[in-house]
Amino acid sequence: MFKRLLDYNNGEELETVVLIKNSQLRHTKNDKLYLALMFGDSSGEIRGNYWDANNQDAATFNTGTIVELNGKREEYHGRPQIKIYSLRVVGPQEGYDLNQFIKSAPEKIKDMKEEINKYVFDILNPTWNRIVQYLLKKWGKRFFDYPAGKSNHHAVRGGLAYHTLSMLRDAKGISDNYPQVNRSLLYAGCILHDMGKVLELTGPAATQYTTEGNLIGHLVLIDEQIMMAAQNLKIDTESEDLLLLRHMVLSHHGKYEYGSPKLPALLEAEILHRIDDLDATVYAVTNALQHTKPGTFTEPLMGEDNKRYYRPKKDEALDKSKPLE
Amino acid sequence: MFKRLLDYNNGEELETVVLIKNSQLRHTKNDKLYLALMFGDSSGEIRGNYWDANNQDAATFNTGTIVELNGKREEYHGRPQIKIYSLRVVGPQEGYDLNQFIKSAPEKIKDMKEEINKYVFDILNPTWNRIVQYLLKKWGKRFFDYPAGKSNHHAVRGGLAYHTLSMLRDAKGISDNYPQVNRSLLYAGCILHDMGKVLELTGPAATQYTTEGNLIGHLVLIDEQIMMAAQNLKIDTESEDLLLLRHMVLSHHGKYEYGSPKLPALLEAEILHRIDDLDATVYAVTNALQHTKPGTFTEPLMGEDNKRYYRPKKDEALDKSKPLE
Amino acid sequence: MFKRLLDYNNGEELETVVLIKNSQLRHTKNDKLYLALMFGDSSGEIRGNYWDANNQDAATFNTGTIVELNGKREEYHGRPQIKIYSLRVVGPQEGYDLNQFIKSAPEKIKDMKEEINKYVFDILNPTWNRIVQYLLKKWGKRFFDYPAGKSNHHAVRGGLAYHTLSMLRDAKGISDNYPQVNRSLLYAGCILHDMGKVLELTGPAATQYTTEGNLIGHLVLIDEQIMMAAQNLKIDTESEDLLLLRHMVLSHHGKYEYGSPKLPALLEAEILHRIDDLDATVYAVTNALQHTKPGTFTEPLMGEDNKRYYRPKKDEALDKSKPLE
Amino acid sequence: MFKRLLDYNNGEELETVVLIKNSQLRHTKNDKLYLALMFGDSSGEIRGNYWDANNQDAATFNTGTIVELNGKREEYHGRPQIKIYSLRVVGPQEGYDLNQFIKSAPEKIKDMKEEINKYVFDILNPTWNRIVQYLLKKWGKRFFDYPAGKSNHHAVRGGLAYHTLSMLRDAKGISDNYPQVNRSLLYAGCILHDMGKVLELTGPAATQYTTEGNLIGHLVLIDEQIMMAAQNLKIDTESEDLLLLRHMVLSHHGKYEYGSPKLPALLEAEILHRIDDLDATVYAVTNALQHTKPGTFTEPLMGEDNKRYYRPKKDEALDKSKPLE
Amino acid sequence: MFKRLLDYNNGEELETVVLIKNSQLRHTKNDKLYLALMFGDSSGEIRGNYWDANNQDAATFNTGTIVELNGKREEYHGRPQIKIYSLRVVGPQEGYDLNQFIKSAPEKIKDMKEEINKYVFDILNPTWNRIVQYLLKKWGKRFFDYPAGKSNHHAVRGGLAYHTLSMLRDAKGISDNYPQVNRSLLYAGCILHDMGKVLELTGPAATQYTTEGNLIGHLVLIDEQIMMAAQNLKIDTESEDLLLLRHMVLSHHGKYEYGSPKLPALLEAEILHRIDDLDATVYAVTNALQHTKPGTFTEPLMGEDNKRYYRPKKDEALDKSKPLE
Amino acid sequence: MFKRLLDYNNGEELETVVLIKNSQLRHTKNDKLYLALMFGDSSGEIRGNYWDANNQDAATFNTGTIVELNGKREEYHGRPQIKIYSLRVVGPQEGYDLNQFIKSAPEKIKDMKEEINKYVFDILNPTWNRIVQYLLKKWGKRFFDYPAGKSNHHAVRGGLAYHTLSMLRDAKGISDNYPQVNRSLLYAGCILHDMGKVLELTGPAATQYTTEGNLIGHLVLIDEQIMMAAQNLKIDTESEDLLLLRHMVLSHHGKYEYGSPKLPALLEAEILHRIDDLDATVYAVTNALQHTKPGTFTEPLMGEDNKRYYRPKKDEALDKSKPLE
């Protein structure tokens, strides 16, 4: 197996297979073209410039291409970069797969599957249980593979499932504290709330919005899936049980301005929205703090109203936490 | 046939069958109960108090009940009211129907049907044409019977169809002016945009929101109907044609804060939203001006950001216009 | 001991000691004055009118007075009320105490104290631990007696402690899920965040804002207490530990428009704000749902952006839950 | 006559007279100055760099200068550009006029004049008719020459008249649909609403805001013109007819935040505002879509709340439509 | 001369001529009509009910009528009221004038005129000076008679001039502190900024908005007056001096949402807006505090974002201040 | 003494000691590093590039370093710059001080001290007088040295005191105009309102926010100082006098969104907020206008809602005003 991209030290020469995560044709002021590239694999990302490029090169080495990279790791302006000796496109017959080159969620897919299934087991209402199982089966392959978004949070392979699982754990604690909560409905809502992203996004690598993602959105996309599942399962599409579940997913963004066609009008819908928000924020803030020096502030976080967060000088819990990205 | 409610003059005694459009049990300060009633039929509405009522009376003569009313029309405090001699609940076997007592849209249902069908004929795209025909057939009975809302605008029997038709006429003028507009898509959007109200509202009399109206809303309800229609018609649910139509209805409120899960992202969706708004506003403002003295302002209109409109001292077009409600 | 107010059945005569929770002098249209009274004790509240009142009576039987009430429970307009035979002010020598007549939080003060102390034990940072202990000691009597607000949520005796404890339980679940969270800081923040209400409010009975509550507010009031505690405990007022704790309480309303002088800029501050919000919402929504018929919506909840919540037709968890107020 | 700028093919040498639509002095990283120029004539625009420039060149070849351009059309980085051989300022005696080099509205001025005059003929109220005719005469030359704005929409020669005419066509369709509309007032409002732009803007070429445009704005500028016209025409400045017309122009931006000193308070004012908005949006969206590949989204449109619009993969109406800019 | 309304003590019988400031026909629950009247003269206001009224009485004794009142001052429910013995409409021949019955600004008109003239003398720019003098002459009678508004602040006879003068005094202090301020422009702006209210309002008694007030508004109304004054004075309507003055009045509300068609874009326009706001707020808050008990808060002030203000327990400056209304 | 930075003419060689106000390591397109430097002393600022730099140079010549600069003043692209011959870090033993190189407020510290003391003398209430004196003594050194902000306004040495003094002068004029104002409270509020900035900012040179500035903010920081001062002076921390003063500083930002934990609820707090705003705006607008050509607009001012201000073609007062920065 190849040594991975971040396994090389400064000054060391490297030969490895990587993904071009971003490719932009630029030109220097004295009119020479070059490609500004971002290479990545599951170990992380490094930049490199491909000099004296032409339009042909730009087409060959574009975003999402897997390449064999020969070069040398250098330090430039305090940041690591690759001095490129050569680039070669890797053919489909060489057996590489995009997913190899993408960072993954911090837990194993197998473990996440198992734990989520335990939560499914605790959905006692048969309508919700059957629909959740049906859709997990139908979309499961993508569900455990896709990220939860393009950039703000959980933008890693398996991020969608990881975000869902983390919310289920929160949901458990909250259901324990408040016995008036309908635990089955809350769990079903957690599992389905973002599942529409398997239709809204293109996948874990070089993630983009699909056209139906842009024109319909994951809230309505999963609502439509629930309706069609109900038809296939011979569940009455007018039953209150189904209505409640549809409302859970349609209202989970919590506010009109975030694209919810309805505001949460169930105790469980209100909680679902808040857990969703909380888990996304904890992820994004933690990730930013992990890249920030103690005693200083993060950059403004776009997904958090451009707020900046402070990393205390001494913060044992954070120091010992596992890096997210 | 009975003389209608507004056909009686001041001081005249009356005996007629009317609908109780609103009933509230109140008590005087010296501790007597009475029912404050609003009677109505297709000619309009008048108030009347039923004195010395008890809880039993309140249950008997509640909102939505059809009654035989004996009494006398009087003037009280400048406003007409009925002095009630007696009230009797009319039984189902007497052959009355709620709809008789409700004001209707200013055009005949038969005429509206015919004209709308002409517009359907001009939807040249087969996917949109078939779905529109399918849903018009499935929901047509309600579609030509329901109001377009509880109160703000077109809150009359047949108001939903009337609003739709008026928008189609606007759509025609606009499509003529701008040849770049996809006329078929715009017409299909007009016809379907509010059709979900047949599920969102309870009907033309004593109109309320249904539970699914409150929890799902008419935008998503009609979107689900479109998807199920497509399945039944063997239309590919992933086709771009279907995607465009779904986007039309899902975005027609134009802004997130009005419950659109997506903002208009098609030229035709943008126009649909604006025609919808325009027609509702023209209706509401006209209706208010028709009840306002020349040279003065209307009351603040709730559906129009509480704005007040001025009726010019001399305004021939308005003076000659047919009253809406 | 007296039978309590809600222990009497309809039609039964009663003689009991109650608190006047609200008293308003009104007049009938034929110019007679009466007092509209709200009686209450720990079992709940009932209205009653004191007829033919004068200004003297209004002064005698004003809000916050403890009285002996003779009368009869009746049903009026579907709601229970007391027909008053006589009212007598109870003197201070008779040994009654305002607090007897106020509804209490659903858990016992003794139990809450014990459980909160366990959380204090888990605050491992000595600065935070000492300040929390110091202030719990200084304000503990009020802390376990006061409500968490005038009306929106936890407006019961002991409500402040109950809200705090419920948040600590949420905090525990969340700290377990996210190991990067500084548990000590989060617990300390939970315990202190609303403690300034012991200065902002007048107490559990007939709760009002104090002048310093209105002009300074509980966020800054507790911040000042923390600074003075630090001085007395010889803790460096400039230390980062103290700074973090001050930031927790000053930012816990989460947004400027809710009176936070700073937005949360610590992961733990962000979480504190969200737990606070969540617990208040769960309480308010649950309380409203418990007073709502299955299959219908609550009234608009003022503290929740005037949203209305739906109580499902069948909802076992809610049905079995302990009534909050 | 010269071949026009966009009539040359890639690789072809050219010699033509063009307008410098934008000129910026920039410097390369190795400290050489050059002028980044945008050339344009009525056929469109192309960029070109003038190397080794100095401050003198920047002053000579600045924005708004007409020049004789010798060079060669090339492709650079996928976009056409001109490799400049020489530039020469064209003197006033050579008979060129700025307006030759500006794109024009898609209809002929003569045709637009004629059609607008027909609408004037339908303004039956003599006060409005005389004022419209007076101001069309006074400002007509500019009115048929100016754009409707600097950039967002109708930013072409004759754009102001074109926008006005397109609105009149919409107004006709709407007046036909709603007989309660005062057609004369609506037409007069359409014609005058933006006429203040002849004072607010500097003209069709290199359009800027005038100082009075910035400090007073076109709504109030045309209102002042109406008042002065009335004086000259001996029309009572206090008459209701004049008041209504002044209100039409002063309220046509529809909302305070867009600089309307009053909100629309006439049915016709409400419609005027909406037609104005509709026509501007249809223009801007169409223009953007015409520059967008089928199956993709436009860039965010600044004048449309930064929304992006989708061009369907197959869209006959749009495909066949005449390009706007 | 008559003793004035507030000169009578409790229990004393009175016979005086007063203005009916508000008249409303109401009915008791046992169906009797009465008029709820508010009497007023320059000493203040007291309520009184006219029992057993009919529609005729309502027409006779309506808002704005001057009447001879016989009755007795009583205390009801802690508030003074008049028990009415008889009411008689005072005829025009009896020589009363509405203005006698209206509260006036706390300074004498003659003094205000004189002081304002001194400020006019300090407007050194001849364009501004001549226009200010011209308009003061044209509208002076109303200017020193009208209030500055219907209710929020300076709603007294002469209130417009008083508000203007108070602003001029502020303007003087500020011009002294900041020598970069163009004192002449600021003074001219102060004097003219609200002068359009002589057209926007109906006058000092029973103040209402005129139709042109509602449809055009005082900012544009005074702008039009300035333009017409310039024409009559042969001042160039395009001169920068005139432009600056027009901008001052058009922008003085400071924000679009308050109906300014332009935002302040001159240092002096910015200051004018702030002085205007400051003086209105000081007036409204002072007036409210003067009617509030020490140690308590005012009611929410509508014109001040519904804020409530605290009157300190001991506040010598306020205690000694002259009552405003 | 050295000639100062702006004392050299174009083309002249220079040798002087200056502060590096900003240092950024950049690289040219052909991969060479250079330092883009901003030099400054009390005479103003000029840019210069240090070519062929390395990381070591970047560390040596970073922001805030005092250096001896040899070079030549040149004109580049219309703007002055320094061609650098050599740079040498000046050692601490050479006796330079950061403050020498910073622009100062336009009045002398000694004069400002004296004048502020006169205002202190007019604070007649002993509680406020003693606290003001105590804190002026404790923080006076910084108070007369610090700027009032990082950038928007009064960002000069002594700017905090200058802003305070200018507000006191406004406060005097306003107190003279409105006798109901508690002058002592207003003066005390002016002096203390921004004094927390001595803790919030790092000082006059290369001003940054401190961590406690970011996490607590100057409003609460000075509130804490007032409380601790009261303790040390044996002033009752619960007294109304103290409460009023605390409210003044805590509410002076006037709106929640600017970080006031409470809105102004005293007449004097309302005025304090407005004077603060007024003085900051006059400073920022004047400063921008002084750098703008007559007849043109300033750049959008960030601290003034991005508004642009117009400098009239002829504006004597501004022309003669002393430059602020």
Automatic annotation (TrEMBL), chains A, B, C, D, E, F:
Classification via Pfam families: HD
Biased composition (Basic and acidic residues): 304-325
Sections of the chain in a coiled coil: none
Domain HD residue range list: 161-280
Naturally occurring in which organism (per UniProt): Lactobacillus acetotolerans
Source organism superkingdom: Bacteria
Organism lineage: Bacteria, Bacillati, Bacillota, Bacilli, Lactobacillales
Region (Disordered): 294-325
Name the UniProt record assigns to this protein: CMP-binding factor
Any GO molecular function: exonuclease activity
Record keyword Hydrolase present: yes
GO terms for biological process, alphabetical: rRNA 3'-end processing
Keywords noted in UniProt: Exonuclease, Hydrolase, Nuclease
